[in-house]
Amino acid sequence: MPDTTDAPKAPDADASLFMAFDSTHAALSAQDLLDGLRFDVIATPREIDAGCGMTLRVDASAAAEARRRIEDEEDVRDATAFYVLEGKVYRRC
Question: What is the Cα–Cα distance from 26 to 15, expressed in whole angstroms?
Fold first, then answer.
């Protein structure tokens, strides 16, 4: 059986989704894609390594739809990393 301890896990349904970006352009494009969903623009937490100082925190109720929209746009998807906050640790998902 393969070892899946390092495999990304699906985020908890009650957890906000954090999106960090390689560039400001990707962050601004993502905001346009998420129009109509609940999210906040926050400073990228220092625990997250990203090329842009802007992160989007998406409300848990909109996380699945937000991720789908981002993943449908190749240019933005390739410049986006997804995280959830577990306790005090940001875990990539």
Answer: 23
